[in-house]
Specification:
451 residues, Rossmann fold, Dihydrodipicolinate Reductase, domain 2, eleven-stranded mixed sheet, six-stranded parallel sheet, globular
Length: 451
């Protein structure tokens, strides 16, 4: 077992160096961009979404006064939500907010330093490109991209600048997840043998917005601008407001949920993407005109290229029974690392009797607590939003000032996008999807997968 442990550490270190070489720390160019401690950071909002209003804004408000950040403008294509957003922000900040019909108007704002992007899934990568080309730092909701063309273009655009880009994979700012990453990367867990990712809900209204759909009229938005580079379809208020149900505007479960959990696999192992993905599922219950499945299972093969070593990851998700909830459990020969309980335990490890039958020694992990150790303050307990996202937002805000690399840099978004797009390819073709490393393309049935 000790040889396996050393091998895992060696492989992880090599892969980590190859993956993130040159991305950590600060360049000389970045040092020149450090914003003074007394300078106000002026932030624009791209999309007055439910996610922004209910989570991102409360998390921003937890830290903005201390770190001297302010929101000065909002862009939203729909006049109704734009007006709601302006009124809401004026109430929160006590000053006027610039109302922008589109992002061109927002980026024409003088001295805009940064943006928070929470638009439709398929727009994130292209809106990232707009932000960095406008010389703005950006906090971007996941999924980062849902096609490889968008992912590659956005990665290239960000890397050509010194902009601070934080992908909204907030697990990377959680202490329990950081402890899990260190535990695995230090070799204490041993080689990973399997990972189970689960995300189950029982919500017929999840991602539905019937009241808003009834309000939206084509003359109130710029439908062509909304579509960006997707194939033209006639105006449909459901695709605008319930985009998570409709491919190619969203992949639904993979982009919304799996992208969070598969990112921890990449982080913990320093692997950039799966070797292959297969998937099955369907629309079994909520037959409301949606295109994206309401139940699915995806199976991933992970490991270093051209080796026999590796492990399997399963992502299971259903929207008509919530048993199992949301969880991530990692397995090794010695036990499990459970991010539902935040415990490492010998559960399932190689016991004495089973080991002796093959003249082997037992392999049982000691108990270990991954949870946070510090006592919460009153401020922590009463903060808006959730703890993970609040910490993630703060990390981005601090990095905007220091110019250090944030916890979820653009490379992390690119990697989860590859896994997401491979899953989409398996879903839409029925084939085993793979990744062509040289071309940076997802392949299915011997062809490059697009939509």
């Amino acid at each position: 077992m000790e040889n396996s442990r050393r091998k895992f550490i060696k492989q992880s270190t090599i892969f980590a160096a190859a993956t993130y070489a040159g991305t950590m720390g600060m360049s000389a160019k970045s040092y020149g961009r450090i914003i003074g401690a007394n300078d106000r950071v002026r932030v624009g909002v791209v999309g007055f979404s439910d996610r922004f209003k209910s989570t991102l804004l409360p998390c921003f408000l937890n830290h903005n006064k201390e770190l001297n950040f302010d929101i000065v403008g909002l862009s939203d294509l729909w006049s109704y939500r734009r007006d709601l957003g302006i009124a809401h922000l004026k109430e929160k900040f006590g000053h006027d907010i610039k109302a922008c019909r589109n992002n061109d108007e927002l980026y024409a704002t003088k001295d805009l330093d940064a943006v928070i992007i929470s638009t439709a899934d398929f727009q994130h990568a292209l809106h990232t490109i707009e932000a960095v080309k406008a010389n703005c730092d950006a906090y971007i909701e996941k999924p980062f991209a849902e096609t490889m063309d968008d992912a590659k273009a956005a990665l290239k655009a960000v890397k050509a600048t010194d902009r601070i880009v934080q992908i909204g994979s907030q697990r990377r700012s959680g202490e329990n997840y950081a402890n899990a990453a260190k535990y695995i990367q230090d070799g204490k867990f041993g080689p990973i043998t399997a990972v189970d990712l689960v995300w189950n809900v029982n919500q017929p209204g999840r991602w539905r917005r019937p009241d808003l759909v009834a309000k939206l009229k084509e003359q109130d938005i710029d439908w062509k601008r909304f579509l960006l580079n997707r194939p033209f379809e006639a105006f449909d208020p459901r695709k605008y407001l319930e985009y998570r149900l409709f491919w190619p505007y969203s992949s639904g479960m993979p982009g919304q949920w799996m992208s969070h959990q598969i990112d921890t696999v990449h982080w913990f192992t320093n692997l950039k993407h799966p070797r292959s993905v297969v998937a099955n599922g369907g629309i079994y219950t909520w037959k409301d005109g949606r295109r994206n499945w309401d139940s699915m299972v995806a199976v991933f093969d992970y490991g270093l290229p051209n080796t026999e070593d590796g492990f399997q990851v399963t992502f299971t998700s259903r929207m008509q029974n919530s048993v199992g909830g949301v969880g991530e459990v990692y397995y090794s020969n010695g036990g499990e690392l459970n991010l539902i309980t935040n415990k490492v335990s010998p559960k399932g490890g190689l016991r004495k009797d089973e080991a002796a039958a093959m003249d082997m020694k037992p392999n049982l992990l000691p108990e270990f607590d991954l949870s946070k150790k510090e006592v919460k303050t009153a401020t922590d307990a009463n903060m808006g939003g959730d703890e993970l996202t609040s910490g993630h937002m703060r990390n981005w805000m601090e990095c905007v000032r220091s110019r250090k690399t944030p916890n979820a840099p653009v490379e992390a978004g690119y990697s989860h996008s590859v896994a997401n797009i491979m899953t989409n390819a398996a879903v839409h073709t029925g084939a085993k999807a793979t990744f062509d490393e040289n071309r940076q393309e997802v392949m299915a049935n011997g062809k490059v997968f697009k939509y």
